[in-house]
Specification:
This is META domain-containing protein. It comes from Flavobacterium soyae. Helices cover 29% and strands 31% of the residues. The chain is globular. It is of the alpha+beta class. It has 2 domains: 31 residues; 107 residues, Lipocalin. Strands 1, 2, 3, 4, 5, 6, 7, 8 and 9 form a 9-stranded antiparallel β-sheet that branches.
Length: 143
């Protein structure tokens, strides 16, 4: 009888640990996944408080976001990488890689650097606003 009781306790403990790990990994996955409203194409409109012009970029920079990654263009070079969200209003672009074609895009490096330092976002009136530790850096419209 004691052996059966011990076996029952052991199986119960193992089973409860597995379900706890599953619940924790589900929570962690949900915390890092990107909100649905972000998962679309965004076209750059404003960079560091200034409306972008044709002189700044060969074509309008854009980013297309999925639940865990992004791709897009700096107006000349292709970019891609991971997306991480550590809570509401938080967003980062780790592992950002870019092609290295020679371009006449004067603001390309500024755009890439601001993406790399992004730490937050907000969406208002179908516009995406990205910010870093110093404040608002860029705004995008839906593409």
């Amino acid at each position: 009888m004691k052996k059966i009781l011990m076996l029952f306790i052991a199986v119960s403990l193992v089973y409860s640990c597995k379900s706890s790990k599953t619940a924790n990994s589900t929570v962690a996955a949900n915390e890092n996944s990107i909100e649905k409203k972000l998962q679309q194409t965004w076209v750059l409109e404003n960079l560091n408080g200034k409306v972008i012009t044709e002189k700044d970029f060969s074509s309008s920079p854009k980013i297309e976001m999925t639940s865990s990654s992004f791709s897009g263009s700096t107006g000349c070079n292709g970019i891609k990488g991971s997306l991480v969200s550590n809570g509401a209003g938080k967003l980062q672009f780790p592992n950002l890689t870019s092609e290295t074609k020679k371009c006449d895009a004067k603001k390309e490096s500024e755009f890439v650097q601001l993406l790399r330092t992004t730490s937050g976002y907000s969406i208002e009136n179908n516009k995406l606003y990205l910010s870093n530790q110093f404040g608002l850096t860029m705004s995008f419209k839906k593409g």
